[in-house]
Specification:
heterodimer, A: alpha/beta, 2 domains, ten-stranded mixed beta sheet, 13 helices, globular, disordered N terminus, B: alpha/beta, Rossmann fold, four-stranded antiparallel beta sheet
């Protein structure tokens, strides 16, 4: 398919374009132990990583599919029709001029170079399975911050990777974390030294750009004592008729007094399975914040979680989900209060339209030793029509009687009075709906860097206009 | 008096199959202030909501023409863009949408090509907010979300001033206001009135001490039973509505 044909197929949806597949190395479809070994060998990885991959592959084969969630959709995944590795350019670039032209065109349409000048501390843009463009601003380098794609991180800092890899999300955590551990490629590796504060948001874009191409990126962020970082990731994908599998793993480690904020806005095309394991460990007085926006995909299963391991640690999970026609957003949050005086806030907002389904699935756990914990969970669902669906599955396991827990949930519909009011001020029904929806997501949107907030609002307005399928 | 702006002829309106407006005819021209008075439930609010096009109000017979065009052929937003404005008795709240953003977008939609530049808009906004004694902190709040009754009414009047309508329908804009707020609201109406047709719904005479109506209509059980001048309002205040009932 040529770039032009692809654009025609997608229509004038701004972000729904793709480049001709331009891969120099590509494995056949399907997975075997040999494919896993080949990936590791091709990347010239140390033996211990090959061993981790092979062991994870065996776990993946043994583990059953989840028996909860949308099993009907999950069981449609054909693991044999997925390509597990694809390298699209020779090595990793850190000079924009050296990036191949067609890849650059894709990124230019995503606005990365301009965005970098204005906002970014550094850019890692993932094209297919590996980062092709990577830069770290000089001030970050001077502060000793390591920001690389994960493959380079493993090559240059194998000791750090070995120390932390799989310590937050073990390979055997679930079937998809096992799969990711076996075939991972790309993702970001960040280490922030003690006491260093990265003021500007650090950003990476991910895209799926080849038919049946699975993306299995692996991200590891370590914030050393008293440091802080704000990491931002955005995803858009072209529309394809065949199914695509995206199964990432993100591990965050916030040492004593450190703070990590990880913000994501994803807009997968409607055929993508987005099955992601995101988890962080917060030590004493540390803070981990997940800001997570899910638009698009066929099925998303994602529950950013935080293990509050040290006294006084804090977790914040703010998420939104938008489920359109044929889509199921199964999202939520998990917080484990393992230490005394730990606190958490969970805010989840979901919208369902055109028969879409949003589910909130949450887990809040307080261990018997954890005295004086506080947690507040708020989940709000907004239904835009009678065909759509919203459900909640909150679980609380409270082992300590001193815990102070609040839970609020609401399900609402857009009222005729709201629509009439806005329309009486000159707004068409679609515009009025767009305003109501953007307003509903505002507590999330205001947490994002401005360009993301603008893009998200625009995407939702397009959704309300029915401009997106 | 100027050309006919609004022309209502033998209008019947039902809500959920119950007839509320039972044959109303009314003509309003630019520069005229009309007041409709009547008890609760007499159909006053139904009339203005039907003119603006609320989907729950069904016109079963008769016509409403705005500038000679049957409004049934116009969507609600098209009516707004054509110059109709309704100040709501109970304006809806829109959580998450800031007043400032909402006003800017509404002015762009309604005034279209003649909408002011960002700078002119800010200037207009500042002038009108000062005249309504509204603090600029209003702009960062969410539309009507957690607003007091008086704050909601001020925001309605602010929108009217910014949107500069040809036809202003004001549904009980005076209710629940203290005397100072009432004067502020009345000043707002008076500043729009010379260049627009105004239809005020009220059941107190209080507002009409500040806004002089050219016509006062009495509505009882879905019909206009009497029309007079401003003197009729005072008469109603002292005599009530019983003497008008059939």
């Amino acid at each position: 398919m040529s770039g032009e044909e692809a654009r025609d197929a997608v229509g004038d949806y701004r972000y729904g374009f793709h480049d001709p597949e331009n891969s120099t190395i590509r494995f056949d479809k399907g997975l075997s132990e040999q494919v896993v070994r080949d990936i590791s060998e091709l990347k010239e990885e140390p033996q211990w990583m090959t061993d981790i991959r092979v062991k994870a592959y065996r776990r993946f084969i043994e583990m059953p599919m989840p028996t909860w969630g949308n099993c009907g959709m999950l069981n449609q995944i054909d693991f044999d029709s997925v390509t597990y590795f694809l390298r699209s350019s020779k090595g990793t670039e850190n000079n924009w001029d050296d990036v191949p032209e067609d890849i650059k065109r894709t990124f230019e349409r995503l606005g990365i170079p301009e965005a970098e000048q204005k906002w970014l501390g550094g850019v890692t843009a993932q094209y297919e399975s590996e980062a092709v463009y990577h830069s770290v601003r000089e001030d970050l380098e001077e502060q000793g911050v390591l920001f690389l794609d994960m493959d380079s991180g493993l090559k240059k800092f194998p000791d750090i990777v070995k120390k932390y890899f799989c310590t937050v999300v073990p390979a055997s955590d679930n079937k998809f974390s096992a799969l990711n551990t076996a075939v991972w490629s790309g993702g970001s590796f960040i280490y922030v030294p003690k006491g260093v504060h990265v003021e500007m948001p650090v950003q990476a874009y991910f895209r799926i750009n080849a038919k049946n191409m699975g993306q299995f990126e692996r991200t590891l962020i370590i914030a050393d004592e008293g440091s802080s970082i704000n990491y931002v990731e955005g995803c858009t994908a072209p529309t394809y008729s065949t199914e695509s599998l995206h199964s990432a793993v993100v591990e965050l480690i916030a040492m004593e007094g450190a703070k990590i904020r990880y913000s994501t806005v994803q807009n997968w095309s409607a055929n993508v399975y987005n099955l992601v394991t995101k988890r962080g460990i917060a030590y004493k007085d540390a803070t981990i914040e997940w800001v997570d926006g899910n638009i698009g995909s066929k099925l998303t299963m994602k529950y950013p979680s935080v293990i509050l391991k040290g006294e006084g640690a804090h977790a914040e999970v703010i998420s939104v989900a938008y489920a359109g026609k044929g889509q199921h957003q199964d999202a939520g949050a998990k917080v484990h209060h393992l230490a005394p005086n730990t606190t958490s806030n969970i805010l989840s907002k979901s919208i369902s339209k055109n028969g879409g389904r949003s589910s909130y699935r949450g887990m809040l756990q307080v261990s018997p030793k954890a005295h004086g914990c506080r947690s507040k969970v708020v989940c709000d669902a907004l239904m835009l029509d009678a065909d759509s669906q919203s459900d909640t599955y909150p679980t609380m396991e409270v082992g300590n009687p001193t815990a102070d827990l609040e839970h609020e949930a609401s399900v609402s519909k857009v009222s005729n009075d709201q629509l009439f009011y806005l329309m009486s001020r000159g707004h068409s029904e679609e515009e009025a709906m767009g305003m109501i929806v953007n307003g509903f997501f505002e507590p999330f949107t205001r947490e994002l860097p401005m360009e993301y907030a603008v893009e998200l609002n625009r995407l939702l307005e397009l959704e309300m206009e029915g401009a997106i399928g | 008096m100027g050309d006919e702006l609004l022309s209502i002829d033998s209008l019947h309106v039902s809500v959920a199959d119950t007839e509320i407006i039972k044959g109303v005819s009314l003509k309003i021209s630019i520069g005229e202030v009309h007041a409709i008075m009547g008890r609760n439930g007499s159909g006053k609010s139904t009339l203005v909501n039907a003119i603006m096009g609320h989907p729950a109000y069904e016109i079963t017979s008769g016509t409403i023409k705005f500038n000679g065009v049957d409004v049934e052929e116009m969507e609600v937003f098209e009516r707004a863009r054509a110059g109709m404005f309704l100040s709501f008795q109970y304006p809806a709240s829109i959580p998450g949408v800031q007043v400032g953003t909402f006003l800017r977008k509404s002015v762009s939609s309604v005034r279209g090509d003649s909408a002011p530049s960002a700078r002119e808009f800010r200037k207009e906004l500042k002038t009108h907010m000062e005249s309504l004694n509204m603090d600029k902190s209003f702009l960062a709040r969410y539309v009507n979300d957690g607003f007091s009754g008086g704050e909601k009414k001020r925001l309605e009047i602010l929108q009217m001033l910014l949107l500069n309508p040809r036809l202003a329908l004001l549904d009980e804009t005076d209710s629940g206001l203290d005397i100072d707020a009432l004067r502020v609201v009345a000043d707002g109406i008076n500043s729009v009135a010379p260049n627009a047709g105004c239809l005020l719904i009220t059941h107190y005479e209080r507002l009409l001490e500040h806004v002089k109506p050219d016509y006062v209509h009495v509505m009882i059980d879905g019909k206009i039973v009497k029309t007079g001048n401003a003197g009729l309002a005072s008469e109603l205040e002292s005599k009530g509505y019983d003497w008008l009932e059939v």
